[in-house]
Amino acid sequence: MDMDTYKKFETKLGYCHVLPDRLILTEQSTLVQHIEEYKETNKLPKAHISYLAIVLLLALKSYTAFKDYKFVRSGASVMVILGYIIFIIYNINITTTPMIPKKSIVKIKFKKGTKWLTRARLVVHYKSKKGTLKKRLILFPGALFKGDTKSKEAIDILIKANYLTVHQVL
User: Fold this and answer.
1) Which parts pass through the membrane (predicted)?
2) pLDDT tens-digit profile of 73-124?
3) What pairing do the DSSP bridges indicate for beta strands 22-26 and 99-101?
């Protein structure tokens, strides 16, 4: 792999390598020689299963509290359960895949971070091999690690590689 054929930028957890035909997210700054090793995977369903287990345990606690006439505790548990369910529904299509082919990318959105609260990030909407619409979050480094300059560098790289346009960033 020649260094002139692709650019890379730093993310929160590693690097994003911008190739002409795909985006590859890695923990190290160099790519493996065999790009085929990067496959479309998703580690988040395991997290969703643990969240569902928490919801079931809270539902059981809520039911026993309701049965014992402890309505405030039961109501609080129901509110937490609803929060977990909304969280799961909102995040069900977010993946952790390390490779996204350019032809499957539908759109890329840049979201500015809120000062002292959230990081700047890219939301890559793409179609998976099964044809479903998925999202991949690419978080930029935080303010302590020169996040503003790193995100500007990343946006410039993506614009030059025709992944982003200027009006998508504004």
Assistant:
1) 49-66, 72-93
2) 899 999 999 998 898 888 888 888 888 999 999 999 999 888 888 888 999 9
3) antiparallel
pLDDT at 88: 85
Longest distance between any two alpha carbons in the chain, whole Å: 69
pLDDT for position 36 = 59
**Percentage of the chain with pLDDT > 90?**
34
The letter for the amino acid at 146 is K
Phi, psi (degrees; rounded to nearest 5) at 156? -60, -45
Is 140 exposed, middle or buried (CB count within 10 Å of its CB: 0-12, 13-18, 19+)? buried
Q: How far is CA 16 from the centre of its chain?
A: 13
Chain segment 10-61, per-residue pLDDT in tens: 999 899 999 888 898 888 877 766 565 556 666 667 777 888 888 999 999 9
Collapsed DSSP state (helix, strand, coil) of residue 112: coil
- Report the C-alpha gap between 24 and 16 in whole angstroms: 6
3-class SS at 88? helix
Structure tokens at 119: 């990081």
- In the numeric block, the tokens 């569902």 are attached to 52
Radius of gyration, CA atoms only, the chain:
20
